Fold:
Amino acid sequence: MKTIGEINERIQKGEAVVVTAEEIIELRKTVSPKKLAKEVDVVTTGTFGPMCSSGVFLNFGHSRRKIKMGGGKVYLNNVPAYTGIAAVDVYVGATAMPDDDPKNTKHPGEFKYGGGYVIEELAAGKEIHLEASSYGTDCYPNKSLKTKITIKDINEATLYNPRNCYQNYNVAVNLSDKTIYTYMGVLKPRMGNANYSSAGQLSPLFKDPYLQTIGFGTRIFLGGGIGYVGWWGTQYNPSVKRQANGAPVSGGATLALIGDLKQMSPKFLQGVSLTGYGTSLMVGAGIPIPILNEEILDWVSISDDELYAPVVDYSYDYPNSTGKTLGSVSYGELRSGKINFMGKEIPTGSLSSYKTAREIAGILKQWIKDGKFLLTAPVFHFPGPDSKYQFKPLKEE
Amino acid sequence: MLHFPPILVDKPMISTLIRDYDLDFNILKAFVSPEEEGVLVIAFSGTEENLDKAVNELKSKGVTIQLIESDIRMIRDRCTDCSVCVGLCPVGALILDRETYEVIFDAKRCIACGLCIKGCPAKAMVSSI
Structure:
């Protein structure tokens, strides 16, 4: 019906009709899908939640007496970076921690500092303490180096997150008698609380369930700046079970996101600490969905009441991969603050910030309306449900 | 925080109180100290009139009552408005505004149990202790 080229022309003229994923749900209550599909050009989505599989590739440039960081050791504010690449290229991951972090020796550990915080501080332009040591070669004779740098001193700071924007996720509860500390937060005993982590009706991949518009090279809002979809994410699962409306009933697709950290903001890249678990990075992402036809309009109009998440016990079932789910609840119920589940009224909490997801969808909407952001068609589409692409567990001897 | 002198430790005072004055309650901590004094950290809710009567009855029977003043506060700049604290707080001192989806901390309701400090990923809930 419409093409991305036509939509981009309208964006450049300042004529594009852009709404957020929440606004389209409201509009859909009173306006016919046919009319909306014709008149609305873009629907924007957003999400801001902890995304552990995130990190940044850095190139520092060479010191006068050159050092081979590759194969050596590098610490940024005492957080180890991965050095298995070139001489002055490193990768700082969100979950990396200082060598002397007590971790869970006195359970539950606080995990006060880690890679996620380093990434936030880099984005904030803060000074970072860099320490490097190596074995020395003829061409890179320097064996140790200490200095202070900011993101301005760095050549490249390329955020590359192998797995972001999970399409749906579990609702975590704790069936045991003791409080447990997990990546889904603190879980009180006997289903004392239930934690979920998704922006639901605002979340990018819930609004494009079969990844018809989102693919390699899709331009997005990332960390406060511009980014792109760099690959399908790790643990990608297109064969997930789905409802009739296409929405997965549990975790499905994921995306690898890439962008220049230098134009991003700590407001949308925040280091966090999960007690008893580790550090992570909250990542803000927003993806525009071109309304090319009525089918896409139907998908972007799905609301929280029509999206369901599986309830999983994190005290036994999750750690032991039993695959058992206790049931499912809708995001509408989750977002109301309490769910009625297995005869109990359970207060809910979200790890994903709905307020910030809404803000991101709003910012992206404004960028597009201002003509500053053009949409891209995927260079290629990611594997679909018919592709036989499998998400497997680890093979053990 | 209620202190029960040894002579009262084996008397069913709280259950009678709750029935007589139609109170809701949440017990956070309860123990008998080595000196055989009973200590109960409890949050009561009910009508103002009934709460006043309940407090007066406890005092008249020799129970010492201490209002806990919480020094827990929220660092607004760090809070991401995620809401995990809302599901953890036993007394509703942390709530999610269902229109703006902002997390709001009501210090007056806080009983300093510290669950939010443990639970907040952004380390936005802090205490000076």
Summary: The interface with chain A takes residues 78, 80-88, 96, 98, 100-102, 115, 118-119, 121-123 of chain B (CB under 8 Å).
